[in-house]
Specification:
286 residues; alpha+beta; 8 strands; four-stranded antiparallel beta sheet; globular
Length: 286
């Protein structure tokens, strides 16, 4: 199970509640919200069913997702009497920590780009379709775009060697760090390499939906609201390579969308934490 499968884009069918996200994506957001910071903590399956039910995931879907994630090495289970509890594996912890960095530390706006680029060139046999898919998905999550078919580029100094090594492709990949020559039109290159309209549309949609939520009041389900918020924000930013702000349109919508995200996140943080304390039955991982 590779990280691109874990973080793969959800079903993008839209509704009044936002993008229809896969149960696994919501499950990871749940564990990121309520378990990651707590260390070796396991949560009772009934508690997980309760919380995910608040965002439209049925009991059977929750149970099958838990089983599938255990089989894929993302969750571990622990029996306490007649109850089954679930906790994070090291692999899932690593992925969630990466997501936490993207959400809370880096942010969606790159105002401090130093002018450097990371280039990755690869050549894989035609029959390696799965390996090619894995590499492209992981590169996209790491901020790369396809400059040409076998040459990908990302802003800044990106440490992508571990990604390549994890996929077993080190002998098929070359990585460079460089700066663009003055003859290169960076803004044109960015427009040719990344689908700016699609990235911008995600931010606009997110901002409209969650601004409406703020205007409507906080509601009475902060734990469900925060779960939807974080999961949808990850869906919004996962294809955004954090391109240098000075080479993007002046009205780039990531700024306002991020402000809206942080406002709702601040509004729901304490109430969701208190509700989790009341709702979640937990135990320490043995």
């Amino acid at each position: 199970m590779e990280d691109d499968d874990i973080l793969d884009s959800q079903d993008t069918q839209d509704s009044s509640e936002g993008p229809q996200q896969r149960p696994q994506s919501l499950m990871l957001a749940f564990f990121g919200n309520h378990v990651l910071e707590e260390g070796d903590l396991c949560v009772y399956s009934g508690s997980i069913i309760d919380v995910l039910g608040r965002v439209g995931v049925g009991e059977q879907a929750v149970r099958s997702t838990l089983t599938r994630m255990v089989n894929r090495g993302l969750l571990m289970r622990q029996r306490e009497g007649r109850k089954m509890f679930f906790g994070l594996t090291p692999q899932a912890t690593r992925v969630l920590q990466d997501g936490r960095t993207r959400i809370w530390r880096q942010g969606a706006v790159n105002d401090d780009w130093d002018g450097s680029w990371t280039l990755l060139a690869f050549s894989l046999p035609d029959s390696w379709k799965r390996q090619r898919h894995d590499l492209r998905s992981r590169l996209t999550w790491s901020g790369f775009g396809a400059l040409y078919s076998g040459l990908w580029i990302a802003p800044g100094n990106v440490d992508v060697a571990a990604v390549v090594s994890d996929l077993g492709l080190a002998s098929h990949v070359k990585i460079f760090h460089a700066q663009a020559d003055v003859a290169t039109d960076i803004e044109l290159m960015i427009r040719d390499t990344w689908d700016l309209e699609s990235i911008a549309a995600r931010y606009v949609t997110f901002d409209k939906r969650w601004t409406a939520h703020l205007d409507a009041g906080s509601g009475d389900d902060p734990i469900g609201t925060r779960l939807r918020l974080v999961s949808e924000w990850l869906w919004t930013i996962r294809t955004d390579p954090r391109l240098p702000a000075r080479h993007l349109p002046p009205d780039w919508p990531a700024h306002t969308a991020q402000e809206t995200f942080r406002r709702v996140a601040d509004q729901t943080a304490r109430p969701a934490h208190r509700m989790a304390g009341d709702l979640l039955e937990t135990t320490r991982l043995r």
